[in-house]
Design a protein that fits this description.
Blueprint lengths: L1 H18 L10 E7 L5 E4 L6 E4 L2 E6 L3 H17 L7 E3 L2 E7 L5 E7 L5 E6 L5 H7 L4
Antiparallel strand pairs: 1-4, 2-3, 4-8, 5-6, 6-7, 7-8
Amino acid sequence: MRLRLLIALAVAIGAAVAGQPVPAASQARTVICGQIKHGPHAAYTSMLTGKKLSGDTWTVFATGVPCPAAMRAAPQILKWWAKAKIGASNFDANGFGCNKESDGRGSAGSAGCAYKGLSNIELIMTGSYTVAELKRMFFIR
């Protein structure tokens, strides 16, 4: 009798577990690591807002990259960005492979950098936008 009860219980637990969805792997979230004032000057049209932006304040966004690593790499990336041609993808340092991204209108205001796997950082000249405004704009919590 006990054996039947244990078998029935095992079958019931197995059926319950089989019906449960498998939890998804933890997904990396995009965060704003910080802003760099007095970076290279950029003037471009934002693909997100369609507005022209001009200035030298850059915001560092990271997805799956620790913010200390992103902020350490940012000055080197911006130094390269200032000299690179639009569309250039010849920067590779500290594990970051970057390209100078076009706004589609002959100007640039960002650098996209792949890290390990799908991890990446994005440096965007965000002008006078505050971190709070950028979080709302990019739906970042």
